[in-house]
Amino acid sequence: MIDLPEEYCDSMRKLLGEKDYELYIKSFEKKSVSAIRINTMKISVEKWKELSPFSLEPIPWIEKGFILSEEDRQLASRHPYYFAGLYYIQEPSAMIPASILPIEKGDKVLDLCAAPGGKATEIAAKLDGTGILVANDISVSRAMALAKNLQIAGIKNAVVTADTPENLELKFRGFFDKIIIDAPCSGEGMFRREPRMVKDWQEKGPEFYQKIQRQILESAYSMLAPGGKMVYSTCTFSVMEDEENIDWFIKNHSDMHICDVEEKEGFSDGRPDMVEDGSRELSKCIRIFPHKAQGEGHFAVLLCKDTLDKNEDAEDIVTDVKTSLKNAKKSKSKKTVKKQKSSKPAENISPQEALAKFIDIKEAGYEDYDIVSRNAQVMLVPNETNKISGIRTIQNGTIAGEIKREFEPSCQFALVMKNGEYKNVLDFEADDINVIKYLKGETLNIDTELKGWILITVDGYPLGWCKGNGKGLLKNKYYAGWRLQ
């Protein structure tokens, strides 16, 4: 049993009442659960049910989510389907924020605290290759891990940044249709799953995080377009970090309102009674308690911004947004300009020509992408994201490959491909030993006459590349840092 601070226990008694508090404490005797969320950009839920090697216990608040058994939990992160990006491993409650944000195709979406990528990958699945996803995390190391998870998921319309909300705010005033904030918090809801967070709570506590959360909310507000929607979420029970923050926010912004969310099994209402002079609308917030649902503690709320009032000068606001983007484009440093300058190999072939020799650009749907070369890397960059500059960027679009003596495709390029886009394909079933050998980076010996670049797939879903000699010897080109250990 975890040794919980007395001050924390008192706050939970006050929040839950004695009867529910005892049930909450008893929930620490149970193991936390893990789950998978199906990547519907690659596979439908119906198809997954046919293909799944795991048991399928549904999560009540998201139809594409399934709780893993203890046995499957060990297998899920090592299965070939994981490396093909067919699903994302995630704690069940953490699936709620992205599930309640109503994404429409073509939206410009910001995931402000995105690492490690659970919310961003779900947002991208809803966008289905349209619009723009800016996935940000202030930590460069976390942002790099985020970029990897987006690559494995086969997302090609994402920009991964590692900057402060304040700096993003300078570039993107009123730019985003949808924003999601999974705010840094005291982590009370994760004490069962990650007992080490108790120490952080004792050292900092809700007061420390509330100030940060309010700053993030203010930055997000300025980046949200009129008529836009925003989700604020935490993994804490603290009323100070949850309902108090939302009550403060909507009182300071008369054009922001709490929106209705479809009630699902396991959801508990927000607690306006815990906030002095709190709005009744706070009951629309969502709470998850581990003694009432199969998930760790969580809080989420959907906020909506009014469209422009007739008395407001809409033209001035639109002009300000355009000016912000124009200034962002002008603010490119010399280093950034140099990186975007086309780099020609010995053959003097352009990145467009190199890629066109490899795939049919039009058929693959890259007509709305800028194909550029950066330090010999061929990049597929969504047109509108070229306006994003002056921000610490980890990745913009997709690294298609590199021009050396020939075009060498990247692993992430394989993962954004769909059936029929490439002809030289070698497909294996998931239980074929050659799949495991490939994922471990081993050379394959296969009875095939295929030569040159070969796309390796598992049950039709891309994993990466090999290079064949036409006599059955396939040189493995899977990224060393992605290999199965």
Question: How would the blueprint of this fold be written?
Answer:
Elements: H1 6-16, H2 18-26, E1 35-38, H3 45-51, E2 57-59, E3 62-67, H4 70-76, H5 80-83, E4 87-90, H6 96-100, E5 108-111, H7 118-127, E6 132-136, H8 140-152, E7 158-161, H9 165-171, E8 176-182, H10 197-203, H11 205-223, E9 224-234, H12 243-252, E10 256-258, E11 268-269, E12 286-288, E13 298-305, H13 314-330, H14 334-340, H15 351-358, E14 369-374, E15 377-382, E16 393-396, E17 398-403, E18 407-409, H16 411-415, E19 425-428, H17 433-439, E20 444-445, E21 451-458, E22 461-469, E23 473-476
Parallel strand pairs: 5-6, 5-8, 6-7, 8-9, 19-21
Antiparallel strand pairs: 1-3, 1-4, 2-3, 7-16, 9-13, 10-13, 11-12, 12-13, 14-15, 15-17, 17-18, 20-23, 21-22, 22-23
Helix pairs in contact: 1-2, 9-11
CA-to-CA gap between the ends?
33 Å
Q: Report the helical percentage.
A: 25-40%
Query: What's the Cα radius of gyration?
Result: 24 Å
CATH topology of the largest domain: Rossmann fold
**Residue-averaged pLDDT:** 91
Report on the biggest sheet. Answer: 10 strands, mixed
Beta fraction: 15-25%
Categorize the overall geometry: globular
Describe the structure.
The protein has 485 residues and is of the alpha+beta class. The chain folds into 3 domains: 101-305, Vaccinia Virus protein VP39 (Rossmann fold); 334-411, no CATH class; 425-482, Archaeosine Trna-guanine Transglycosylase, Chain: A, domain 4. 32% of the residues lie in helices and 24% in strands. The protein contains 17 helices and 23 strands. The protein has helices at 6-16, 18-26, 45-51, 70-76, 80-83, 96-100, 118-127, 140-152, 165-171, 197-203, 205-223, 243-252, 314-330, 334-340, 351-358, 411-415, 433-439; strands spanning 35-38, 57-59, 62-67, 87-90, 108-111, 132-136, 158-161, 176-182, 224-234, 256-258, 268-269, 286-288, 298-305, 369-374, 377-382, 393-396, 398-403, 407-409, 425-428, 444-445, 451-458, 461-469, 473-476. Strands 5, 6, 7, 8, 9, 10, 11, 12, 13 and 16 form a 10-stranded mixed sheet that branches. It has a 5-stranded mixed sheet with strand order 19-21-22-23-20. Strands 2-3-1-4 form a 4-stranded antiparallel sheet, covered by helices on one side. Strand 6, helix 8 and strand 7 (158-161) form a beta-alpha-beta unit. Helix 1 (6-16) packs across helix 2 (18-26) and helix 9 packs parallel to helix 11. The protein is globular and about 75 Å long. 45% of the residues are buried.
